[in-house]
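Q: Sequence in, structure out?
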Amino acid sequence: MCTPYGCVVDASAVTGDAKLPQSSANLCPSCQATGKKVPIQTVRALAAISLRRVTAREYRFCQTADCPVVYFSNDGLQTLTVDHVRERVFQKEAHQPDVFVCYCFRYRVGDLSGASQANYEAIVADIKAGIAADQCACDLRNPQGVCCLGNVMRIIRAQENS
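A: Exactly. Output:
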């Protein structure tokens, strides 16, 4: 059942000690792609719903672009979709110029699209300087729960190869 607060499987449907097979525990219940484990604090920081509704202890991140699920619990009982998070998710909207690719230092896809080599270098240097100054909080600001620099570099490489 889905509500404005997320999707939940009726707990009465799970009896006894029944658990999802280990192989399916990592799979997004919507698209079946393997999800990457994210820190619980990331989910809590980015949930646009009451934290009383964030009941699982472990969540995974679905990066499939055409899947609306952003986070799903390991037990398969809860999902948070793009409508349930505070930020637009780069992996879901990678071709939108106004979506952030670097959430800490506020660089958008459009800042990188068609930029010169000098601009690429300046952006990467700025992000690295922020990281070195301990000014990033990717574990809380990036829906992936990890450093954004890898996404920035992927965009730059794709631009250079096109």
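The beta strands are 2-3, 6-8, 36-38, 59-61, 69-73, 78-81, 100-102, 107-108.
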